[in-house]
Amino acid sequence: MKVFLLSLLLAITPAWATDSFAPKLDIGKGGKCVEEPQWMRKNHMQVLLQQRDETVHLGIRDGKYSLKVCIECHASTKDDSVLGRADSFCEGCHRYEAVKIDCFECHSSKRHLSLVQDASLAQKESK
Amino acid sequence: MSDTNVQRRQFLKTSVGATAVAIAPGMLLFDMAHGKSEAVSSKMRWGMLIDTTNCADGCNDCVKACNKENGLSGGLSPTDSQWIRKVELKDMRSGRAVSLPMMCQHCAEPPCVDVCPTGASFKRADGIVLVDKHTCIGCRYCMMACPYKARSFVHEPLHDQKPDVPRGKGTVESCTLCVHRVDKGQQPACAEACPNKSILFGNLNDPESEIAKKIRTVASTQIRADLGLDTGIRYQGI
Amino acid sequence: MQTNSFNRNEQRYFYMLVAAGMLVLLMGLFAVHAMEEHGHIITGMNNQIVWGMPHVFAIFMIVAASGVLNVASIGSVFGKPMYKARAPLASLLSIALLAGGLSVLMLDLGRPERVIVAATHFNFTSVFAWNVVLYSGMFAAVGIYLWTMMEQRMNPWSKPVGLFVFAWRFILTTGTGLIFAFLVARQAYGSALLAPMFIVISFTWGLAVFHVVQSAIYAWNGKTHTPEIVKRMKNLLGIFIIGALYLVATYHLTNLYFAHQSGFERFILKDGGIYPQLLWWGYGLFGNLVPLILIFHPKLGNARSALAASLLVIIGGFALLYVFIIGGQAYPLNIFPGYEASSSFGDGQIGLYSPSLPEFLLGFGGLAIAFLITLIGVRALNFMPHDKPHVAAAGATD
Ligand code: SF4
Ligand code: SF4
Fold it and tell me: How far is B94 from chain A (nearest CA, A)?
């Protein structure tokens, strides 16, 4: 965990590093991300979109860039959500960047451990 | 269509993979070791055979199971979503009463898909008809076109959706044949819930499957077969 | 209306009209915002009646937009000078109505912010998607047409462009009719007659709208209609009314002829409550009979009664569309032929619908868009029909 936090800190962009207003995020359970945090900051939307199309249209459900898995790790341990507070994992950053999040009008923003697909859990365990 | 999709996907995988080598070597190896991502294929044609002679008048278990599985409110106002409903029928000549569950018939030639301006309504290679809510603009033309009134429009903002069943205001939705369960190798919730085992779910394209065998031996019908839509949901006893 | 004080205050009146239009438009936008916020729950539409009042407004405007161009076509395609003088105004009206109608259609979407999706994800088998192409093409074509007419140097092009617009307009109205004609499972629609019916109806509505606007412009500028021109236009309107009536009647009669449709026809013509009322009184009496009397009665038929006839045709048009769109959905789908069906989802029952305020606001907002475009266009550029004296006099050759 410490290592992860450290790497998170290190990975913060220079712009962020110098910006004292940068949001402090509640990263929930955290753990090792599917990609480097900095890479994810930049590219999470692309990979999510790509995987969503594969899942919806082709039924491929074991891709690693799953929104559900993001939430599983990053929903706050306090309220099991990635939304709702200034430091919530998704909302905190999106508020800061003033980018509207559309996902959660339809998708659940809550951690539902029991419902997360066995495949994705297995995936993580095997790591 | 599915074949090209598989091919395209393979191609994408290789090219994306090549890029990934540069980005995240560890991840790529992991992916290949795990590579069981299979697109659905037309080897399957998911369908159901519903035995109306077994279906009890007044029983609502399939509807309840659907609501629970998919996070529907179960409200019955004209603006509430109903993915599956019990229809009570009376034969106008003989007066015989029939009770049956009605839902999206997962047509092989779905009118909803033909009319959808954005392609949000689509048919998966395995015959399941879905709405891609990311591209649905909420024009409701598909609802006008569906001969079975299978679709509902989400009239209000929703909260606390099921993680596996995203639904949202301003888009159209209908029975997904519990696609999230089917992809895990499970049955649709309604089929599992029916106390009389009236709903038989299976692969119509596999001659050895139980459903295919049964369709060969008992008389079954497609609703409004005259429209020639080749529905995936078949009924027995009407 | 033409007094000195009107002349002095003409500017003021213009801005007052603009303000009024803006106000209606704002209320429409307010309705859109409310629908965005609360969802379609605040409208009268539901899972049985999925298209409601906004679609009545939108389709009226779109159909009229194509029909109004008929005036221009008669001028440039068939070379009638009297109509040629009116082609620019007709084109402006067409653009205005199209803009109004499409805005309503778009803003009624469940996800209006995604229209861009409609442009990038294109399903070629969908008539609806084709209509999007037809409409935007129409904008462009009419815009160019207007340019060829207004710009001296482009004048020689106006004939070929006019022809093109003429053809495009036919396809467009056919497309609008086909949106419904493809709904084979619904008793009310799925008829091959819909496309020709929509075309002739479009002539009627278009000419009626044109006549109303033209009368307003004449009055505003203190001019009076030349009786000869009024006579010709009202006669043409009369012919269109009869043509449209004929097709609407044929559509219902053929439905009656097919046994499986007779239930629907009984509903629409007799038992359906509001729908037969609107059809007989609204469309039949006020939309056809009274206008025809106003037009053809030997003692009537002056400019004023022609204007009244046009207004009534417009009202009748709304009534017809209400019956067609909403009545057509209210009649239950026949999912189980030979059975009587009932369920919690309205099977076998007449769908209930009462239009709500936001729907009307949205519809009027669309009308306001058309109104504002026309008003400002007419004011800023020269759209006033200029009849050469000999044209007005050279009488009834058509
Ligand atoms: S039943 Fe209706 S919604 Fe389902 S596939 Fe057929 S047309 Fe589409
Ligand atoms: S409502 Fe959505 S799914 Fe239905 S036709 Fe329109 S865009 Fe397609």
Answer: 45
